[in-house]
Amino acid sequence: MNAFRSLRISASGLAAERLRMDTITSNMVNATTTRGDDGKPYVRKVAVFQTNLDDAMSKGKENGNTLLGVKAVGIEEDKSPLRRVYDPTHPDSDAEGYVTMPNVNILNEMADMIAATRAYEANVDTLNANKQMFSKALEIGR
């Protein structure tokens, strides 16, 4: 039903931003992990999204119901280089005394977290506005 399309779009935005915040949290927690299960340093993860379009659009039909929100495509590893820090006392240091650290920058993660939080709040506000409109419409019908 078209009346609930905006609710579905907001709900998909909420789910996407929650995944983004979970990914950022994982990055922040592992910012100093120099050895994971595979023996390598943690690599920063990034949530990847794309618009969720109805199959009717790909079939050439234009019925106005094509946008379904956003969907998570996956979580990818950041391709930026890992940091090397001089610390000869660290157990994971190499022969030259350098430790390979994760490519996580806490300041960037905090900025991303603020953006994700604001986007989440915007989706909540949109969801609440739609609920109020539905409520008012029901009151008119009495």
Helical residues, percent: 40-55%
What portion of residues belong to β-strands?
15-25%
Q: Identify the overall geometry.
A: elongated
What is the H/E order? Answer: HEHEEEH
- Please state the average pLDDT score: 88
Describe the structure.
There is one protein chain. The chain is α+β, with helices and mostly antiparallel strands and 142 residues long. It has 3 helices and 4 strands; from the N terminus they run αβαβββα. It is 45% helix and 20% strand. The longest helix has 35 residues, at 106-140.
Fold blueprint:
Blueprint (H helix, E strand, L loop, with lengths): L4 H25 L15 E9 L1 H4 L8 E11 L5 E4 L11 E4 L4 H35 L2
Antiparallel strand pairs: 1-2, 3-4
Helix pairs in contact: 1-3
Could you give a short description of this structure?
With about 140 residues, the protein is an alpha+beta fold.
From the structure above, extract its key features.
142 residues, 4 strands, two-stranded antiparallel sheet, two-stranded antiparallel ribbon, 3 helices, alpha+beta
